[in-house]
Amino acid sequence: MESIDGPSLGARVSRLEPPDRALVAGVDALDAVAEAFADIIDAKSPYTYRHSANVAALAQGIGRQMAVGSREERRLVRAGLLHDIGKLGVSNRILDKAGPLTGEERAAVERHPVHTFEILERVSAFEELIETAARHHERLDGSGYPWRLRASDLDAAARALAVADVYEALTADRPYRAPMTADAALGLMSRDRGKRLCPVALDALEASLRGH
């Protein structure tokens, strides 16, 4: 059986599509597709239940506080829903592991944004959000993964999604730790303010959580 990241899988699937069954999806339909994929992604592990949907909602709140506009908000929501689609190519034995990861296991986890990029680039309707979705683990100082990008490579959307993803992960239950409170998570994230995480996005997250 071919794995999800097999080089010829996409081409084989495309050849099976009936040529007279092409459908054009509108804005609402694309949102529904993204939401459906998010449900599939989050169902992979009990520890990621609602993660994608929560990240999308947090990213939307951050974007609203940053006054990015309705079009950009929608892009952020879709990117949030789809950012972890690459984890479908990572074994649950790794994702649900309670103890420390081996070097090989860590490398597999850190490759999931690459899978996200490769999966989304096959869908032309999602072209405008691919880089935002795939860069959610990149950091301003180049310490993120998988491409070790720096601040100059990360636009406002990528920075907002990174902050949303970190906050959601810290406040969610994980196999290796209990969830943090909102205050504890924000306090921990503040240590990376302006270094690894965008200060504007952090301020926007706090304002959104306060309901301002």
**Count of discrete alpha- or pi-helical segments spanning 4 or more residues:** 11
Domains counted in the coordinates: how many? 1
Mean pLDDT, to the nearest integer, reads: 89
Number of strands: 0
Which structural class fits the helix and strand makeup? mainly alpha
CATH class, named Mainly Alpha
In CATH, what is the homologous superfamily? Answer: Hypothetical protein af1432
What is the alpha-carbon Rg in Å? 17 Å
- Give the overall silhouette: globular
Q: What's the helix-strand series? A: HHHHHHHHHHH
CATH architecture descriptor text: Orthogonal Bundle
How much of the sequence lies in strands comes to under 5%
Helix content: 40-55%
Note the main sheet.
none
| CATH level-3 fold name | Hypothetical protein af1432
Textual characterization of the structure:
By secondary structure, the chain is an all-alpha fold. The chain has a single domain (27-210), classed as Hypothetical protein af1432 (Orthogonal Bundle), CATH 1.10.3210.10. Helix content is 54%, strand content 0%. It has 11 helices and no strands. Helix 3 packs antiparallel against helix 4 and helix 3 (51-65) crosses helix 11. The model has no long low-confidence stretch (mean pLDDT 89).
